[in-house]
Amino acid sequence: MADIPVAGYAQGVPCWIDALLPDVEAGKRFYGALFGWTFEAFETGETPGATAPARTPARAYSEGRAVAALAPKRDGRMPTVWNVYFATPDAYALARTVRDAGGQVVTAPVPVGAYGTVALVTDPEGAVFGLWQAGTYPGFEKSGEPDSFCWTEVYSRDGGVVDPFYESVFGYGGTDMPEIDGTAYRLWSPAGTPPGPETAIGGRSLVSGAFPAEMPAHFLVYFNVADCDAAAARTRALGGRVRAEPFDIPYGRMAVLVDNQGAGFAVLQDPEPPS
């Protein structure tokens, strides 16, 4: 898998994540205890109201470097979820491209102060992802290291529908991988790089029989951890759940977890170096 850069994100490279939560303060306690993150509030340019303190987003730091944000849900009907954002030099143009390719624009591009411009869109199956056009804020200051983002993949029902979408929208080069437990998997590499595991920045899996029948298409965000089993045990101790117990894959050891408010994510421990 490709190293995720901390500056100069090319189009289609994951550059930021945030969690939409009912209770940001509870999220800070959970992720602070799980990953050792620290937090600071930041302004988004919204006009503060009577409930401003409860609505203030928090930026998360690991070893003093920005890794994610926790944001309050503006509407109880919104999902409690981790979102991933992909870099683009022009969020307005890319949002139009998404629509022309069969996706939908959920939130049209809007400036976030001087930080940049953000949009939320979906693929043709409804999986939600973000676009980020950097202003003063490019995105991750730490990634691919313990307690920070390391990978993302979209779970889809029909690769024949979504693969052409992402590969036309972002210019990805695709690489089909051997099936794991009967599930087809495709890696995506940024435009201009040779496709393959060494350059991949994300991928596409399929919603298999292991998922509930009503499970919609969605992105799963991964965090690198030093100890997958310990992270799963810690999640339980903090009031979260383990959706998939730790298991080994070709890229290390992983588990799928759910925080104490219902947001799902995965953790990945790097493989042991050969002795």
Give an account of the 3D structure.
The chain has two domains: 121 residues, 2,3-Dihydroxybiphenyl 1,2-Dioxygenase, domain 1, CATH 3.10.180; 122 residues, 2,3-Dihydroxybiphenyl 1,2-Dioxygenase, domain 1. It has five helices and 16 strands. Helix content is 17%, strand content 41%. About 3% of the residues have low confidence. It has an eight-stranded mixed sheet, covered by helices on one side. Strands 10-11-12-9-13-16-15-14 form an eight-stranded mixed sheet, covered by helices on one side. With 275 residues, the chain is an alpha+beta fold.
Sum this structure up briefly:
The protein has five helices and 16 strands.
Task: Give the SSE map.
Elements: E1 14-21, H1 24-35, E2 38-41, H2 52-55, E3 58-62, E4 65-72, E5 81-87, H3 91-100, E6 104-112, E7 116-122, E8 128-134, E9 148-156, H4 159-169, E10 173-180, E11 183-189, E12 202-206, E13 218-225, H5 228-237, E14 241-249, E15 252-258, E16 264-269
Parallel strand pairs: 1-4, 5-8, 9-12, 13-16
Antiparallel strand pairs: 1-5, 2-3, 3-4, 6-7, 7-8, 9-13, 10-11, 11-12, 14-15, 15-16
For the structure shown, list the relevant keywords.
single chain, alpha+beta, 2,3-Dihydroxybiphenyl 1,2-Dioxygenase, domain 1, 275 residues, 8-stranded mixed beta sheet, 2 domains
